[in-house]
């Protein structure tokens, strides 16, 4: 008997039933419309499975591919801006740029409300089809109160189009296999995603204008909620999309811009996978166990970076990861023509600063060949070069491994030990290969240093020279040799751990530092001043962004202009002007100064009138003017302090020469604290260090500076 015949054979419910849920509106009878599916993926959040909807744009792409009925078993659909691929046949979602658990994907039409969080959970695709068929028969024949049993023995009853419930099976000790009963609290069943009030994003613009790599600081967690760098950068990216819609609306409507892509760079996991955690575990005391493990996992990262062994591991990981991500991004976005910038939080900003100060500007090679470039002579991009290298190392039997992976000399130069291990190269041969690559790189660096004209040593003769006994300025070139025998290119290496800094395969446009300790580390290393003429070799933009209560952040500008006291640039609020409590505070300060000045002026004039002999009217007026002028001068010298916010906020108000580290523009930018943060600076110190990921003001500054390089400005300039 077919499903339709079975439904027709069943008696219809009594028309005089007192149950209100059996009342069906007349206009819904015999009118069936197919449900519109939406695609979801499952993600574990806080040890609980949550079903998250794809954007409308991605769901339409998946549905179109699903309806195409292609026989391709390996059909892949890129989603979420190309950061994830969905294997349609397997119903699995894979992260492309970082390591992440594979997620289940589901084409969803029917949902039921969950137990604890009242979130709607989709039924399986097969059972949803069964529910949809039953619903179609019920609404077509106008026969309701249909009961279904799911594969997990759950009972679903369709009372009418607006009342459908779900009962979980009751666990009993019945050995006779009794059928489940309608017991327990019923849960709501909904048909179609439009009925579950899910927050479904529209999607991201397809055009990518700029790429930004984001490097995290100490520890595996990056914010106050202990989330990973991937989750924090996801927030950063979402805020960026929101700011583009509100502050670059005109440019978006004219299709001048698309979006900025942010990709996370993780170096903590590779560092702690070297076996150092096992070594630390042996020497860690058993008392206050959680605190000691927290210190081992987070704060010790600072000490690792000051160790020559692990410093090399960290800089190698950061550089190779950014190069790998860049190559993969270009592979997945072959039409990308935009620039690249980098951003670092906390210790990550210091790692990037050290990396950038040790880059070699390839524009110095006027002949255009690669011999003096950052990748060395072995980066010629030919597979034959790899064969010659392996032959020289007596490892020719492994050439087939490299040929299979299409590994040329350029790829070999960027290869890490993990890459060679994944290719199946044994420990001994891969050690020889890595040693050859690093030795070749160091040889090229030494050759490049040897070809620097002798006059370059005195390149900064016109710059202010350090005092006797003080360390040289950052930006002066020295011929000091570190412990590894490698000639230092910049004196930033004084006090810095010796490391062979890898080269990036691109030139960053701008370097953004969030909550950065760069200034403190440079000072500890003995660098007392940054030469005003100094700029990063391959990056011409540098912004030091910090929260006023961030205990880890330090300024940069006072190291360039040590004799002048001035405030950092105040970042405008993303809605314009200053926060209300800051304007009120500034207004009260100004009003208090005016009252004080007026009171002092009145008292001084009155005192002079008592102590001096009578004068002519003209002389008296002149004396009064002189007194007021003298009083103003004294008030300015005595009452105006550096921390007064009167001169803060506008770059044009007081032009200050802070050198070329940011192309002649200001470097230090301070966020406006929130009203609640003003009550207790110490209470919000930790939050101040971790606030940047969801800061609209920070994101807006980044977007403003990036799009300025393309000649695109904000809809309305912020004041």
UniProtKB/TrEMBL annotation:
The lineage of its organism: Eukaryota, Metazoa, Chordata, Craniata, Vertebrata. GO terms for biological process: lipid droplet organization; locomotory behavior; mitochondrial fission; positive regulation of mitochondrial fission; triglyceride catabolic process; visual learning. One of its GO terms (molecular function) is phospholipase activity. Residues 1-10, 468-483 have a biased composition (Polar residues). Residues 1-21, 440-483, 627-657 are annotated as: Disordered. PROSITE patterns: DDHD, WWE. Residues 11-20 have a biased composition (Low complexity). Belongs to the PA-PLA1 family. It comes from Chrysemys picta bellii (Western painted turtle). It comes from the Eukaryota. Coiled coil: none annotated. GO terms for cellular component: centriolar satellite; COPII-coated ER to Golgi transport vesicle; cytosol; membrane. Residues 630-653 have a biased composition (Basic and acidic residues). This is DDHD domain containing 2. It holds the Pfam family DDHD. Gene3D superfamilies: Transcription Factor, Ets-1 (1.10.150.50). InterPro entries: DDHD_dom, PA-PLA1, SAM, SAM/pointed_sf, WWE_dom, WWE_SEC23-DDH2.
């Amino acid at each position: 008997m077919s499903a339709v015949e079975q439904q027709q054979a069943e008696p219809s419910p009594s028309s005089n039933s007192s149950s209100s849920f059996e009342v069906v509106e007349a206009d819904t009878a015999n009118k069936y419309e197919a449900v519109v599916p939406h695609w979801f993926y499952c993600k574990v959040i806080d040890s609980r499975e949550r079903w998250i909807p794809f954007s409308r744009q991605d769901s339409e792409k998946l549905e179109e591919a699903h309806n195409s009925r292609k026989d391709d078993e390996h059909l892949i659909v890129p989603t979420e801006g190309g950061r994830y691929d969905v294997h349609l046949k397997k119903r699995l979602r894979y992260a492309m740029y970082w390591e992440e658990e594979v997620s289940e994907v589901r084409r969803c039409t029917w949902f039921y409300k969950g137990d604890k969080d009242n979130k709607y959970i989709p039924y399986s695709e097969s059972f949803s089809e069964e529910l949809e068929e039953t619903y179609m028969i019920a609404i077509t024949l106008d026969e309701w109160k249909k009961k279904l049993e799911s594969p997990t023995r759950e009972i679903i009853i369709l009372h009418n189009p607006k009342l459908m419930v779900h009962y979980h099976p009751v666990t009993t000790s019945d050995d006779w296999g009794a059928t489940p009963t309608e017991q327990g609290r019923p849960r709501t069943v909904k048909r179609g995603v439009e009925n579950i009030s899910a927050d479904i994003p529209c999607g991201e613009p397809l055009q990518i204008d700029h790429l930004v790599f984001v490097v995290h600081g100490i520890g595996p967690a990056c914010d106050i909620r202990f989330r990973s760098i991937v989750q924090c950068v996801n927030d950063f990216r979402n805020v960026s999309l929101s700011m583009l819609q509100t502050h670059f609306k005109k440019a978006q409507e004219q299709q001048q811009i698309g979006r900025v892509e942010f990709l996370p760079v993780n170096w903590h996991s590779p560092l702690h996978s070297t076996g150092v955690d096992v070594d630390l575990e042996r020497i860690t005391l058993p008392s206050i166990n959680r605190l000691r493990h927290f210190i081992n996992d987070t704060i010790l990262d600072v000490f690792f970076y000051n160790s020559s062994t692990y410093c090399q591991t960290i800089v190698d990981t950061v550089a190779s990861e950014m190069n790998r991500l860049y190559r993969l991004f270009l592979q997945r976005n072959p039409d990308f023509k935009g620039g690249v910038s980098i951003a670092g939080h906390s210790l990550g900003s210091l790692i990037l600063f050290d990396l950038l100060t040790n880059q070699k500007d390839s524009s110095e090679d006027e002949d255009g060949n690669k011999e003096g470039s950052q990748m060395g002579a072995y980066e010629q991009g030919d597979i034959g070069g790899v064969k010659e290298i392996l032959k020289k190392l007596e490892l020719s039997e492994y050439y087939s491994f490299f040929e299979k992976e299409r590994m040329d000399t350029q790829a070999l130069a960027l290869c890490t030990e993990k890459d060679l291990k994944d290719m199946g190269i044994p420990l001994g041969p891969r050690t020889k290969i890595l040693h050859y690559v690093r030795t070749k790189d160091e040889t090229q660096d030494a050759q490049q240093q040897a070809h620097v004209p002798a006059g370059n040593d005195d390149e900064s003769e016109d710059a202010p020279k350090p005092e006797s006994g003080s360390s040289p300025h950052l930006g002066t070139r020295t011929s000091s040799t570190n412990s590894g025998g490698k000639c230092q290119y910049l004196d930033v290496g004084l006090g810095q751990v010796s490391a062979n800094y890898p080269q990036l395969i691109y030139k960053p446009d701008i370097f953004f530092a969030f909550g950065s300790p760069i200034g403190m580390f440079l000072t500890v290393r003995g660098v007392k001043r940054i030469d005003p003429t100094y700029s990063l070799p391959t990056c011409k933009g540098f912004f030091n962004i910090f929260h006023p209560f961030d205990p880890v952040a330090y300024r940069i500008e006072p190291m360039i202009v040590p004799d002048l006291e001035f405030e950092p640039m105040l970042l405008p609020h993303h809605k314009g002007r200053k926060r209300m409590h800051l304007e009120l505070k500034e207004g009260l300060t100004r009003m208090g100064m005016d009252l004080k000045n007026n009171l002092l002026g009145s008292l001084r004039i009155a005192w002079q009138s008592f102590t001096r002999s009578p004068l002519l009217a003209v002389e008296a007026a002149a004396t009064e003017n002189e007194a007021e002028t003298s009083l103003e001068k004294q008030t300015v010298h005595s009452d105006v302090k550096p921390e007064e916010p009167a001169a803060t906020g506008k770059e044009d108000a007081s032009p200050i020469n802070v050198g070329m580290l940011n192309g002649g523009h200001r470097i230090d930018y301070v966020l406006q604290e929130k009203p609640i943060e003003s009550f207790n600076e110490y209470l919000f110190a930790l939050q101040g260090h971790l606030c940047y990921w969801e800061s609209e003001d920070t994101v807006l500054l980044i977007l403003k500076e990036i799009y300025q390089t393309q000649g695109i400005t904000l809809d309305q300039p912020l004041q």
